[in-house]
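User: Some background: our group keeps a shared notebook of sequences we're curious about, and every so often someone picks one and asks for a predicted structure to add to the entry. Today it's my turn. The entry only has the sequence so far, pasted here. Could you supply the structure so I can complete it?
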Amino acid sequence: MQAAYSEIKDKDFNIVGIVEDGKDNEDGVNKILSEKKVTYTNIIPDDKFYDDFVSLVGAFPTSILVNDKGEILKAKLPGKDVKQKRLSILTKQEILDIFKENSKK
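Assistant: Of course. Here's the predicted structure to add to the notebook entry:
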């Protein structure tokens, strides 16, 4: 995600991470984000946000791209392919392709 964000951050497009299990380990989360040099916004949900959104997602990691109207452009939910590999995070190329497609409008 960071690699895609680095390419699109100045083009009216954003990535936001939600650290589902960060509430009880905020210092640890911040340390990992710092070590990984993550510069896009990451949210550690409070109880209300957790109840209203995070608890409904069901499994992590999950990627959801929405436009400025709140419409879902693409969602990649946790699951496995035939090789039993997790397929839950959008790739850098998928993010860039979606950005290019939607920035033409």
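Suggested note for the entry: The beta strands are 16-18, 41-43, 63-66, 72-76. The first helix runs from residue 2 to 8.
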